[in-house]
Amino acid sequence: MSLYEIEIQGLKLFGHHGVLPEEEKIGQFFILDLRLEAQEPKEDRPDQMVDYGQVALAVERLFLEHRFLLIESLAQHILKGLEMFSKIHAISLKIAKPNPPIPLPLDHVAVTLRRDY
Fold first, then answer.
1. Residues in the chain with pLDDT < 70?
2. How far apart are CA 81 and CA 77, in angstroms?
3. Close Cβ partners of 88 (under 8 Å, ≥ 6 residues apart)
4. Would you list the DSSP string of 59-72?
5. C-alpha neighbours within 13 Å on the C-beta side of residue 23
6. From the candidates 25, 42, 94, 97, which is the catalytic residue?
7. Nearest-angstrom CA–CA distance, 24 and 104
8. N or C: which end of the chain has fewer CB within 10 A?
9. CB 36, CB 46: distance < 8 Å
């Protein structure tokens, strides 16, 4: 079986995830990067491919579905919800918080989780 990868990079979603009350009240942008592994299609037919547009829309829906204190829990929720895409064999998901409540100069904090299906 031959696998190929699809990358969805820099998906910016606004949410109210986080531990601090300010994060819940004000909200902030998060940046999501996904790497999907799927079986290589045998023909040039869209029905044999992973519809990455539908994956991105599902990620947005799952991201907005609940408020999470931890981005680790948010990542687990999204990966669990993406099980419905039967053509995907594995997903790596990185969720970055560009403006974490840390009083130091930094680009972002992030977690990366991987799930094999």
1. none
2. 6
3. 36, 37, 38, 50, 55, 82, 117
4. HHHHHHHS--S-HH
5. 19
6. 97
7. 21
8. N
9. no
The Cα 60–Cα 53 span in angstroms is 11
What does the domain layout of the chain look like in residue ranges? 6-116
Within 13 A of 55's CA, how many CA atoms are on the CB side? 26
Respond yes or no: is residue 42 known to be catalytic: no
Residue 18: Cβ-neighbour burial (10 angstroms; 0-12, 13-18, 19+): buried
Residue pair 116/89 in contact (Cβ under 8 Å)? The answer is yes
Q: What is the CATH number of domain 6-116?
A: 3.30.1130.10
CA 61 – CA 85 distance, rounded (Å): 14
